[in-house]
Structures are given as C-alpha cells and as structure tokens.
Amino acid sequence: xxxxxxxxxxxxxxxxxxxxxxxATWYDRLPDPxxxxxxxxxxxxxxxxxxxxxxxxxTVVLLAxxxxxxxxxxxxxxxxxxxxxxxxxxxxxxxxRGNLDVADAAGADFPFTLVSLGTVAGALAALVGxxxxxxxPKDPAAGSxxxxxxxxxxxxxxxxxxxxRGVASPFLSLLAVAFIVAGLGALALTxxxxxxxxxLGPVIGVPGLALARIRVTxxxxxxxxxxSVLPRPRIRVPLSxxxxxxxxxxxxxxxxxxxxxxxxxxxTGLVLxxxxxxxxxxxxxxxxxxTVPDAGTAAALLNTLRERAASDHGPTGGPMGPAADDExx
Length: 329
Prior knowledge:
five-stranded mixed β-sheet; alpha+beta; 8 helices; four-stranded antiparallel β-sheet; single chain; 19% strand
C-alpha cells in the first residue's frame, strides 16, 4: 500500500516541481493581474486574478488534488491519479505561457485547442499510471471462512434487544472541509478550461463530511450505519444477509489503504479510525467492517439475533424476506 501511495503522489510531485519552477522563472514576465478566464473562442480574456493570489490558489489546488488521490487511491484507479496530474499539469503552465510577456493581461492568449492538448496529455499519463499498476501487489483476500465468531448474548423468549453507538473522526471532518474550500477556491481563481475541476472538491468533501460522523445500530432488522449529519448515505445489511459477525482490530492503512468508505477486494469498510471494528461476513464471502467502540457487544448481539431469525423463519427467509445484498451507500 505504501508503494501505491508513492506511485499516486509521484505525478503530482513532478507537476508541482515543473509548475513552480516555471512560475518562479517567469514571475517577472507575467502581468498583474493575470488573465485566468477566456471566452469560448479562447482569444478574449474576460476574467482576471491577481498574480500572487493565482500563484497561491493554483498551488493549493494541485496540492489538494494530489492529497485526495494519495488518500483515496486504490490499485485499480491509479491511472486516474496520473490522468488528473497530466491534465492539470499541462493546462496550468500553458495558462502562464499565454500571459507571458504581455504588457496588459487583456492581450493574453489561450486558444481553446489547448484544452485538447491537456486532454491528450492526461490520456497519455493515464496509460503510464495503468502500466505502473503492475508494480502494486494485489490485495490479499479477506480473512478465512473459519475465523472465530463472536460470543452470543443470551436473550429470553420474546426478549428484544438493540445496540447503538456513535463515532466521529475530527481529522476526516477537517479534511472534508479542506476539500470543499479548495474546490470553491479553484472555481474562483483558476482559468476557465480547468476551473470546473474545482467541483471535485465539493464532490469529494460533502460525502466525506457526511461520513465523518456516523451512528451504528444493531437490532432485529440487522446492521444499519447512517450519517449523523445527513439522512444519506446509509448502509443497511439485513440479518438474512449476515453469516457471521466478529470484533477485530483494524489498521486503516494496512487493511483498507486509508480512511473513509473503502472498497477492497473481498471486503468493504467504513473506517474512521484504527482499532476495534465490527466485521460481518456475507453469504458471498465478502466482509463489511465499520470501526466503532464496543464492537464486541454489537457482534455478539448480531450473532444472537441472526440465529434467532434463522430458527424462527428458516434458512431462506424471515421477516426481512429472502436474503439479498442490501448494502448500499
């Protein structure tokens, strides 16, 4: 996983090095303010940004894109990190070049055809990232089917029980807010061809903020994980789709490649911190994990409720109907 993160960070490090070198070299040859927004034809600038503000804003945007990919990259999406770096790393220097040596930013030039050049550069970089995927080992399968099950909780006939805990990650909350702010800054400060990429900040940040504070509930319906901030996203797994539940310590980086909602071969997880996690196994053999305090009690109650439902309604159905994969986010 460390190798995957290094490979995801590499194109952004290269792009930043080249961009900052050009910015430093050309700084005295650039107008202030800088032309940063152009009409559809690309020959009439209609938006301007102070040179210093643009230098800071564009650097923050590149850093935010790089940090986002490093945190959330997966083996099969490494090409996306390289494509993003290739596209933004081509357009940013081209914008500077269009402003170079003009007495007035109104005379800057940025033909729309340069967007095509950025697209080609992004596609070529994506091929490089795809080729580098073979350097990242495939993720091992989830734990073996004979992993120990959690203890049961004794419930009397007709007795009902439920369990619920809240968990939050201040770090993920701050990171999500940073993405939102960086994205809005990109929309305001970057030139038109690449400005829409600033939407990626809110697209990543808003769901991230919703998942940074959650409530985990175990009851006769099964397992429910819902945001404490918004009614969605929501994950629900019925008892009929759980074959076993255990409590297990989770290492976010080693087990899932980072924090947040993670998808790995043979398992998914909502990882807000390291340590104790509730892990359920599905009939397909896949696992779902959520890091939460007192996971042992939750697992024991799930096992009890699952066995009670199976004995009351048979192996193929119950109050929730036939077994189905109901996990969604």
